[in-house]
Amino acid sequence: MTDYEAPGLAGTTAAGIPLRPFYRPDGSSRDQGTLADPGTYPFTRGRLRPPDARPRGWIQRELSGEGSPRRSNQQLRALLADGALGVDVIGDNPTVSALDPDHPMCAPAVGTTGVSLCRKQDFIELLAGLPLDRMTLSHSLPPAFALAGQYLAGPANGIDPKVMRGSAIQAPIYSEDCCYSTFLPFAMRMRLSLDSIVFSLREMPRFHAFLEDTYYISDGGLNAVEEMSLGLLEIREVCRRLLARGLPVDSFAPRIAILVNCRMDLFEEIAKIRATRRLFARMMREEFGATDPRSWSANIAVHTSGLTLTAAQPANNIVRGALQAMAMAMAGVQGLEISTFDEPFRTPSAIAHQLAIRTQQVIQAETNIGAVEDPLGGSYYVESLTDELERRIDAAVRQVEELGDVDTLVESGYFRRILTGAMDRHSSAVQNGELRIVGVNEHTISPEADRFLRDIAEERFEPDYAHVERIRSWRASRRDAPLQASLERVRDASADPAADLMAPIIAALDADATIGEITSCLREGQGLPGDPFEYAARRLPAGTRP
Amino acid sequence: MTGNQRPGRIVIGTLGLDQHEVGAMAISQFLVRQGYEVIYLGRFNTPERLAAVAEQEDADLIGVSVHSWEFLAYADELVARCRDLGIGLVLGGSVLTDRDQADLIARGADAVFGPYAHEAAMLQQIDAIVHRVRAGDAATHPLGTKDAGLPGPLAGRVVIVTGAARGLGRAYTLELCRQGAAVVASDVDEAALEEVAGAVRDVPGSVHAQACDITDSDAPRLLLRTALGRYGQLHGLVSNAGLLRSGPILRLDDDDLRLLLDVHVTASFRLLRVIGGYWRAEARAGRAVDAAVVLTTSSAGLYGFRAEAAYSAAKAAVAMLARVGADELGRYGATVNAIAPVARTRLTEWLGERTGDPADDPLAAEHIAPVIAWLLRPGARDVTGRVLEAGNGQISVPGTWQPGTRFPLPPLMSPAAADALLPRVLASATPSAALLTSLLDPAGLSDALR
């Protein structure tokens, strides 16, 4: 019965790269003597830094946001008090969809999966009293609105936008097909991205205006090669369009950052980051002609994979997060977020948040892992894997680019098929045991025996109906004439392909327009229904079969 | 899905502003592979939209993948709309806790799948809901409150039954499905097998027909592959296929002898080897195996049947397979038992035609099926290596071979010593049961055993 022998360890990496039982010199960059030191081009071994500087460690942050802006502000303060160096704010489902909490579809979702943000006052309350010049604020929010909101809230809290640090996820190609759908057509999403990048470069120069987020696209089941090839593809597309607008590459390339995923095949994930630094450096220098070394050196943050966490035996997730974080510390990332152990159930509980920050602190303070840069550099295995991933990611990028222009690929559903295909592949691999997951498809225990940490994980809270009421009653109190005029300017700008969108959006937000109203005007300017649900229904006709 | 009905049709989507569609996508692809027609609505649905599309597409049920807590606000409206349409409602997702599952069922959902749900169990329940909807029950009873909505004692169990087209195998298949199992039903007679598959309806379980000749050396692998391909796992085997080639020793030719041994002994042995190998692999991979095998012996194999030496010998071999198999497979988490059924089947045509309601017929196969189901129930670890004789209104555990009184065996015994010793040895033995001349002789049988 050879069909049913007990499984051994996999003969390939998670992305399917064949593995040898052990590695020896095999002609990798290491063996050819072309492996440059950390801090030098092509930055395989680590990001640009002053010569002879000690490694600085990474920005420890956690995904946060829950309920009303005031409640989230308390959560952010608690994280900073626990020693977090930055925060990653995610909106609730209405907010990431650019809808207001009092929209008929929204009330049951307000505040349960992130913070509710729809107006200037919300951003002011969210950021009240936070040291925005010293900490970093990452937005897992629709970027143009997040930047506009922060730009208005900074001065209200006494902080000059010029010194604010952080990043905004720009996801024009994939957002609609994955988890950040805002019901806007691709051309409009791309305009919003380009305009908000240009705006941020000018007004918030310390901010990373272009965070390429490969985490969210890959956490449905993409492998490391697919993840980075799609990520680099989007970077290349946005860069080409910025160049086409006449921006010099060295004006924006240093403000690009990448937020990647970290799954459980740890050496592959480490090699992926090393390969990405090298690919990014070559792309910027050789293809886009950047001459500033800061343009060549990729700033990479990581979010450990929520998909690798399990609802069964949630305590195991603490172990997974710690292992992933340790690997990422060895990969030399600039920022790190651990998906908390209760992620399969809810947005992070306070105790899970603290535990995730503590995990990072234990790694940084106690293990000495971060004391030396690229501690795995020179390993036969890691160098061979880095070279192979570089080759495969690069080939995958070229392959997609040969298929034609990105607009057509987006509209034809090409990327959506990749993303949904990966979801199905992942699910099958879990069900048939090909992807081994402890507690799920092996070493299981009965649900009755599986109680440890479940009560915390399964704790629920109500949608923030009070905030819905707050917004509803506030609406009527606004001064209507300036509001309507500002919205009209958004509509006009949307209709004019050459117009800048950021200035009218900021003016409208400042005039107490809501994000939902502004987005409706963006749609109307394009001749689409203002309410996204008519648009969504048209976009996904009934009878669409996978 | 079984028979020639049109495939089950299901509308799948997420609710409200839940942006995650990993689960919706995965279950859709899975159901499509299982022959379902999926109308995939993706994200941003309201109960109204899901119901409108379900009505327009003549769907059997709506499936909602849940990744946020928004479902709490929409559940009652969804239930009401599904009831109006007379269709089923299924929710699934890892955020659904045990309490949610109970709550949603109480509110009227037909099935709810939490983080522990296995594809096989989901498919089985969805199959059952489609059958109920097709039978029109949904319109007359609120779904979720009927008995059929309750998972039976065998819910989630996947069982192979051989010889399932007629007689005992048919009765076993129907009963196992009634108790919630998913049955891979096998028989050499494809047409009769389809009829059985079609007869399974209005019950929590489901059946998948796989025709094959059990004497074919690849048949056990085919059945295992079918079970794993269809349901992803396998918990039980009822090796029931059998035939009779009658005749005294002096008349039974080689072909008949070979056929008897192939069907009863070799096929049972191969099934144990192939399926036992799968359970061993599962156990070695660290997955808990909770499996059961029921082989089919016969009173003939236990006591001998007049003029049926070959059949009796073959069935005796099966009884011993159960006994030794129990020891071997026990270490991997499987029990092995054997049943000696006393029933009216094609093998016992001489018992006369079946008449009327099985409740009035003590020789009906239906009376034995609950015994089989009991042996296959989850967690039945304690019963293994046993033979149960059941039918004609009685059930018992027949005595097995036991060592007799032991006498010293003199070395190199002379003929005279043998003449003196052996009659004493034989006289000390418990008398054997008399050979059977009819299966309907339980009184004589028990007398003989006493």
Shape of chain A: globular
How do the helices and strands follow one another from N- to C-terminus of chain A? Answer: EHEHHEHEHEHHHEHHEHEHHHHHHHHHH
Largest sheet of chain B: 8 strands, mixed
Radius of gyration of chain A: 23 Å
The major pleated sheet of chain A works out as:
8 strands, parallel, barrel
Please give the share of residues in helix of chain B: 40-55%
Radius of gyration of chain B: 26 Å
Number of domains of chain B: 2
CATH class of the largest domain in chain A: Alpha Beta
Strand count of chain A? 8
Short summary:
Chain A has 21 helices and 8 strands. Chain A has 546 residues and is an alpha/beta fold. The longest helix of chain A has 22 residues.
Description:
The complex is a heterodimer of chains A (about 550) and B (about 450). Residues about 1-5 and about 540-545 of chain A have low confidence and may be disordered. Chain A is built from 21 helices and eight strands. Chain A has helices at about 70-80, 95, 120-125, 145-155, 185-205, 215-220, 225-245, 250, 265-285, 295, 315-330, 350-365, 380-400, 405-410, 415-430, 455, 465-475, 480-495, 500-510, 515-525, 530-540, and strands spanning about 60-65, 85-90, 135-140, 165-170, 205-215, 255-260, 300-305, 335. Chain B contains 15 helices and 13 strands. Chain B has helices at about 20-35, 45-55, 70-85, 100-105, 120-135, 135-140, 165-180, 190-200, 220-230, 255-285, 300-305, 310-330, 370-375, 415-430, 440-450; strands at about 10-15, 35-45, 60-65, 90, 110-115, 160, 180-185, 205-210, 235-240, 290-295, 335-340, 385-390, 395. In chain B, α2 runs parallel beside α3, α7 packs across α13 (about 370-375) and α10 runs parallel beside α12. Residues about 140-150 and about 440-450 of chain B have low confidence and may be disordered. The interface between A and B is large, with 59 and 56 residues.
